[in-house]
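Need a sequence for this fold. Nothing fancy.
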């Protein structure tokens, strides 16, 4: 089974960007963690990051018929993008939303998530380990769907 792991704007700056909020791990570290989790779970992953809302929307659309589920950290687009939410609604796949930080403990504008309106589940505040947890849960959801 293929799981898409999609990352939104500024996550390429992980490790340098506000390390007190997001930690010192880089996006390469996140990708490695996901690759390890995938191997353990016997699933394939397609790991990507973009700074562009349009590209992220296109990548979500491409998941239709190709992936079994989407793990997504939409970054700032979480709080702004109806287009991303609509794209996620269009693909008919389980979606797990991940945030490194606990968005509910931060500024008011981060409390609202368009993606949460459609996501199967949400993991936030656990740092990069949230990605591994999301992949474990997604592999489980996919198995459930197959049986
Ligand atoms: C984030 C939280 C968002 O509010 C923020 O815009 C990000 C990262 C997180 O992983 O904690 O870019 O999605």
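Here you go.
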């Amino acid at each position: 089974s293929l799981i898409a792991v999609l990352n939104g704007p500024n996550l390429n700056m992980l490790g340098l960007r506000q390390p007190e909020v997001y930690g010192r791990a880089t996006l390469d570290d996140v990708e490695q963690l996901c690759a390890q989790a995938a191997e353990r779970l016997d699933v394939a992953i397609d790991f990507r990051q973009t700074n562009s809302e349009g590209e992220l929307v296109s990548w979500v659309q491409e998941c239709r018929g190709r992936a079994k589920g989407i793990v997504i950290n939409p970054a700032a687009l979480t709080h702004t993008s109806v287009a991303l939410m609509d794209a996620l609604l269009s693909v008919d796949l389980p979606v797990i939303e991940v945030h490194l930080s606990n968005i509910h403990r931060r500024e008011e504008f981060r409390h609202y998530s368009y993606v949460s309106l459609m996501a199967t589940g949400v993991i936030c505040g656990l740092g990069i380990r949230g990605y591994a947890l999301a992949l474990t849960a997604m592999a489980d959801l996919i198995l459930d769907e197959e049986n």
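For context: The first strand starts at residue 2 and ends at 7.
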